[in-house]
Structures are given as C-alpha cells and as structure tokens.
C-alpha cells in the first residue's frame, strides 16, 4: 500500500468511526426520550389513579374488608353500554386466580377499572393480567425481609409455585417475571404518592418528614395507622 493509499484508508476509518459515534449518540438520545416518555406516562397514570386509590382504600379498609373485591367502577364511570368494551383479564389473588370478562370504557383508564375491583394491572395500558392489592402488599412485606440480590429468581419461583398452572390463551405458561414487577411498580408509586401527600401539604423539612416515617405517634397517628412502605423507600436513610 502506497503512502497516498494509506492516508485515504485512514481518512475512511476516521469517517467510519465518526459515523459509528453519531449512530451511538442517536441511539442514546432515543433511549433517553423513550425513558422520559415512559416516566411521563407513568406519572400521568399515578396522578389519575391516586384519588380513586385513596377513596377505595377508605371504603374497603385498605382492602381488608369483605367488600375488598366488590366492583366500584360505577363510582368513577357513567358510560352507557355503547361506549364500553369487554376484555378477558387474568385476576390473581393470594389464594385464587381466574379469567374474568372485565368491562372497560373510554372515560377511565383500564387500570382504574381494575383498581375499582381491588387489582393492579400488570401494564400501564390494556393489561391482560392483574394482581390483587392484598397479594402485592404481602409481597412487599416479604420483600422487606428477604435478600434483594435473590429477588428476580425468588420472585419467579414464588409466582410459579402458586400460579404455575395458569396458561395464556395460546396455551403457554405465563411469564410472570415480566408482568409482576410492573404491577408492583404501580402499587409502589401509589404508596409513594400517598406518603408524600402529608409532607407536601404540611411543607415539612427533611428532618420533620423523617420523623413522620420513624415515629407515627409523634405525628398524631397510632402505630396501626402508620403508613405503608413502598419498595422504593425501604432503604431510604432517616
């Protein structure tokens, strides 16, 4: 290879490297935009669900009363029959699982209709699987007492042991390790929003907010009324 040919080849290599860097920057930008859009939609969903969550929490005594799985959709939706659609959803509880025809509408999110029945959808949009709030609450209590490093494997083993015989419409086994964390995330975000509400309303300092967490009696609540902790807060320093 002559010196001129070598210089041409080096120039081509530099150009190819710049092109690869440009492609990488485009990919990173698209990932950031997608992540921001996903977070924006998640925040919008939580904002839409939170008021209903608080109302239903009070109505069902935090989903511990006999009416915890009663359908309260009529409290939030007044659509006539022409504006609703039915879809089968896998409803999974601590001791039961079933496929049920759920009625959805255009004026309220699918997750709001599921929340009105005591369930959290495993997808922000058009979920086909939903987990009960008592199950999610029990899971979070177990999560706080288990080794976090074993969480992905342990979660799948636990779910398969309880619900392994529940199949998809095509006859395949459910992929709970993909669906369940989404429901946990939505439920955890609702807990976070509930826990932040008194702090924001009272304009508390960081020290006062820490006291609200660590000493419920000091904030005027009994131990029984102490707030629930989401997975996002378990390692929060006081």
Structure, explained:
With about 240 residues, the chain is α+β, with helices and mostly antiparallel strands. The protein has a domain at about 75-195. About 50% of the residues lie in helices and about 10% in strands. It has a four-stranded mixed sheet. Helix 1 (about 5-60) packs across helix 5. The chain is elongated. The termini are far apart. This is CxC1-like cysteine cluster associated with KDZ transposases domain-containing protein.
Spatial ordering of strands, largest sheet: 2-1-4-3
Shape: elongated
Give the structural class.
alpha+beta
Amount of helix: 40-55%
Radius of gyration: 24 Å
Query: What is the averaged pLDDT score?
Result: 77
User: Terminal Cα separation, in Å?
Assistant: 68 Å
Brief summary:
The chain is an alpha+beta fold and 238 residues long.
């Amino acid at each position: 290879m002559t010196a001129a040919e070598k210089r041409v080849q080096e120039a081509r290599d530099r150009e190819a490297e710049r092109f690869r860097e440009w492609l990488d920057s485009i990919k990173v930008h698209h990932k950031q935009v997608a992540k921001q859009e996903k977070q924006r939609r998640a925040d919008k969903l939580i904002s839409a669900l939170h008021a209903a969550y608080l109302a239903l929490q009070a109505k069902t005594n935090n989903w511990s009363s006999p009416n915890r799985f009663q359908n309260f959709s009529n409290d939030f939706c007044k659509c006539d029959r022409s504006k609703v659609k039915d879809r089968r959803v896998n409803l999974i509880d601590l001791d039961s699982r079933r496929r049920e025809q759920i009625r959805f509408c255009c004026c309220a999110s699918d997750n709001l209709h599921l929340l009105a029945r005591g369930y959290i959808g495993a997808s922000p949009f058009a979920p086909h699987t939903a987990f009960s709030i008592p199950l999610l609450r029990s899971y979070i209590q177990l999560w706080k007492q288990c080794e976090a490093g074993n969480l992905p494997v342990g979660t799948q083993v636990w779910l398969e042991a309880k619900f392994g015989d529940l199949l998809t419409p095509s006859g395949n086994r459910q992929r709970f390790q993909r669906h369940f964390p989404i429901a946990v995330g939505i439920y955890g975000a609702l807990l976070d929003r509930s826990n932040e509400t008194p702090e924001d309303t009272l304009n508390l300092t960081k020290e006062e907010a820490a006291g609200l967490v660590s000493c419920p009696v000091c904030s005027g609540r009994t131990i029984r009324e102490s707030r629930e902790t989401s997975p996002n807060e378990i390692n929060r320093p006081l």
